[in-house]
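Researcher: Good morning. I'm working through a list of sequences from a screen, and I'd like to move beyond sequence-only analysis. For each chain I'm collecting a predicted structure so we can compare shapes side by side. This is the next one on the list. No need for commentary yet; just the structure.
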Amino acid sequence: MFNPRDIIEALAGNVKQTKSPFGIPKFMVNKWFKDLSLPKEGEYLLFTGLMYQFTPFIEKSTQYLEKYEGTKMATLLKYARYVPAYLSGIGLAMMTSGKEKKEAGQTLKNIALLLQKSKINFGYRPDLDNYSGILLYDMGDQKGFVAHAKMLAQKLQNAGIKKIITVDPHTAYALKELFPKYTGISFDVKPYFELLDLEPKDCDLQVTLHDPCFFGRYLQVSDIARKVLTNFGISVSNIRNQGEFTSCCGGPAESISPSLSNEIMEKRAKELEEPGKPIIAYCPICLGNLKKSGADVEDLSTLLVRHI
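Model: Good morning. Structure tokens for this chain:
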């Protein structure tokens, strides 16, 4: 296990300098929308929080953490805060596969398409789409999180934003529950699948749904995802830990201890594989972590787009 303080200080320093936990300039992270003709204005603002875009970089950085965990090299992490965030961020971006970046962007394109098919009046403004800061909160850097959240909430409020569509559970929880509590600024926040109004289908499929902790336990909206699947004629296997009693995929622990993360991941993957059906995730962290286990897993939006 790495020293948690070293990890927190490195991530907090990156967020403070670059608004990104990895120090990667946003123009190198957020490209998914560039070949689409999305409107900038609408009743809702589509807000990705950059979480899907970060998944290839999370995987690459975790590979290095796994390599050095438990070695003498792990103690050198305490010096990471002295490295300029942009320098380390650009290096990480250049080492990350272009194929993986493209795949992460495709998920967001799928979500935008689903919203368009549902005739949702939304706009997308990349200048307003920023990381929520949720990892700082998760790791106990409340002061750093609050400073970042106040900056972002004020930016959105100044732009006249009132209604927001989120695409991942971490950002949804931050904007819906934490921002009002710590910034005093509230928005009407909806996960994208809550707004979907798609033509019913008869796919005659069965899947196993992995509920992310924030959607299942804290926001308690996993029943909505199940209704979307039911509308497509897709039944969901019953497993022991689901909905508000879901189990963690292990992803949140990977920056502190990849070995602990893998242990939790393997346990959850085994549970999800018991029904013998394809596994569906609707969180970028869960999706990436379960893929590492070798599980047959894909994103909810990928499944839905394939059948619209």
